[in-house]
Amino acid sequence: MPKQRFNRLLAALLAAVIAAAPFNGPTSSSSTCCMRLAAGQGLSVSADNLGAGAEATASEFEQFESALVLATTGGRGRGSRGGSSNIGGFANARSFAAMQTAMYYIAGSPQVYDSSNPQHTPGGVSYIGAINDQKLCSTCVGHAVSKAIQISLAATLARDPHSFAVSPEAFYYCAEPAGRSCRTGWDIPEALRAMTNSPQTVLPVRCFNSRKLLKQQDETNVADWSNICKAAAAAAATSSGCAAITKQQPLYNCTYQSLSSFYQIQRHIRAHGAVVTRMVVNNDFEVQFNASAKGKPGLELPPYRYNVTARPSYAHAAVITGYDNQEYTWTILNSWGTGKDPSQVRSAGVTADGLLKIQMGLSGVGTPDATYGVSCYPAGATPLNLNSDQPWTRSRRRPLKPRAGDKDTCYSYTTRRGDTVAGIVDHFGLDMRQVRHTPRLDVIYVME
């Protein structure tokens, strides 16, 4: 095994061991998303669960790295640890099929992709929009999910994201079951259920004017938001653009799914722009992203790297907006504002544009049981989907055509600029292993 790959894997596995070690509390006193290990920051975050999550992430990273090596070099790969010598070292036929599918997807996908980069996105625009800022509240889950909704809409319609900005305050404080305050926090699965069960709280920013509703109160001092949510609903009832948004007639239809592998995460990012994940913030985070990072774009800074002395401080929810399989990094969009914002309250841990990179396999990013893909589109009978026919799908791809003499069992597709094999397969709902290239590189065949 090359030394560089060995070091990456060793770092990921050691991170899992460190995370599983007894937790004695944070050593940093600076302002953060949450100054304690609280379930409200992303999911269950006991020391045991943090360790298990980091170990699962390290294991998934190992499997992903094997698939990536196979896809890009044709190397032998390692197979499944603990498996027999059957099927090339895989534990069973199912694990072999999973590795095969992952390998094909990775080989047929861009090695570098970021939803913030207009050169990467089908719409030719950055999908991330303005950066959320939760200030000193434990509201990162609400900010992460509302941002994922916005990015998904921008990716679905291939449009500028600013018109799809969702109020994180309306979603966090008003979605049922209510009762959350600045300090209580939320769990990711509960927030995602609220997204589907209380769609009337997925509101445009214009329908929930936080500053006006708070009446000069500080968000951190409001213990009961029920009256504020009622006042917002009353104000919305007088606005033609907001009054029409109800539980029966939401503005957007959203779904979510759990993502259990790195290649699935990457596939969802390319299709829907972002993925919600839990990450463990270690006590060296503000050392690696110190005050000097506030003036630099996150993608120009070195990624967060493994540090043998680091200890977990708290769990945090954020969104993954990109990846780099050449450098083994994720792009994270945080909800701590930007370093250029004059109202920024944090002295460190913030970049100029709210983005940062983190090495794959670290901090539990992409943990299989704490990572979710959000998919949204304009609901029927709303301005962007007036006839409930999803007009944005018409110009996506040309249809498959049966090849002459094949009796509808083999279809040909002529690729367009920007197409990838993985993108075509996902669009038509195919099995990656059914796709065959022809001597003409611009044509693929799909076998049924």
From TrEMBL:
Coiled-coil features, chain-numbered ranges: none
GO molecular function: cysteine-type peptidase activity
Domain Peptidase C1A papain C-terminal: residue ranges: 127-338
Signal peptide region: 1-20
GO BP: any one term: proteolysis
Region entry Disordered, spans: 387-409
InterPro entries named in the record: Papain-like_cys_pep_sf, Peptidase_C1A_C
Keyword terms, alphabetized: Signal
The UniProt record lists the keyword Plastid: no
Top-level taxon: Eukaryota
Xref: Gene3D superfamilies: Cysteine proteinases
Keyword Signal found: yes
Name under which the protein is recorded: Peptidase C1A papain C-terminal domain-containing protein
Protein species of origin: Tetradesmus obliquus (Green alga)
